[in-house]
Amino acid sequence: MKFFIDTAEIAEIREASAQGLVDGVTTNPTLIATSKRKFKDVLLEICEIVKGPVSAEVVSTDCEGILREARDLAKLRDNIVVKVPLIAEGLKAVKTCAEEGIKTNVTLCFSPTQALLAAKAGATYVSPFVGRLDDVSENGMALIQQILTIYRNYELKTQVLVASVRHPGHVVEAAMMGAHVATVPFKVLQQLAKHPLTDLGLARFLEDWKKVPQ
Ligand code: E4P
Q1: What share of the chain in percent tops pLDDT 90?
Q2: pLDDT confidence tier of residue 76, bands split at 50, 70 and 90
């Protein structure tokens, strides 16, 4: 299972990369705004650090505008994946991107039918937002299972990128279901390594070590 980091913060990307946890990066307009930097500056700096897929989102909502932004972003670096919203105009743009060899990450997916359409349009990745579904009392991980089943039934090539991950439980379930990728915020990536018994055990070992004649 691949881990992408869901952030535009360079320090977080560097730290998680040093831990071997970054197969790729996802950004969105909110994360770029949080960085308080210019979009392309951040994007290019991320691409200096990470050679795997780096998702950069378009803000146009019509096919022509999406395609203009997609071609512009794809030209910047080979590893840039263009993030396109799951709307009818977005699907048209994704189909053309696929024909032109531009990789896409179809975002804001909240239903299995949306995911099926993204795959039929030729998306490289589809991003179902599990946390946001949980937030409205739906079951985000049940959606992941539905999409994986549908894609496996028809051997669709689009990779399921579990997004809007809120806690380690989402990552465990995604891995057990065989999702291709999870994009995980830095805080949750750090939580994945933690266990209170590890901390207790280490403290005990270090304390006992003091009793060993040096
Ligand atoms: C990633 O591609 C998504 O934009 C992101 O995971 C959304 O997460 P959020 O629901 O925590 O904003």
Answers
A1: 100
A2: very high
163-207 pLDDT tens trace: 999 999 999 999 999 999 999 999 999 999 999 999 999 999 999
pLDDT at 11: 98
Question: Is residue 214 situated within a structural domain?
Answer: no
Q: Determine if ligand 1 sits within 6 Å of the CB of residue 52.
A: no
| CB-CB contact of 27 with 46 (8 Å) | yes
Domain assignment present for residue 97? The answer is: yes
Please pick, among 38, 83, 103, 211, the residue that the annotation labels catalytic.
Answer: 83
Please confirm, yes or no, whether 83 is among the known catalytic residues. yes
CATH number at residue 60: 3.20.20.70
Which atom number of ligand 1 is nearest to the Cα of residue 135?
10
User: Where does the pLDDT of residue 141 fall: very low under 50, low under 70, confident under 90, or very high at 90 and above?
Assistant: very high
How far, in Å, from the CA of 6 to the mean position of ligand 1? 7
Q: What's the predicted TM-score (pTM) here?
A: 0.96
Residues 6+ apart with CB under 8 A from 108: 85, 86, 127, 129
How many structural domains are present in the chain?
Answer: 1
- State which of 5, 82, 143, 183 you would mutate to test the pocket of ligand 1, scoring each by most atoms of that ligand within 8 A of its C-beta: 183
Pair 7, 27: CB distance under 8 Å: yes
Could you tell me how many residues make up the chain? 214
Q: Which range of residues forms the domain containing residue 139?
A: 2-209
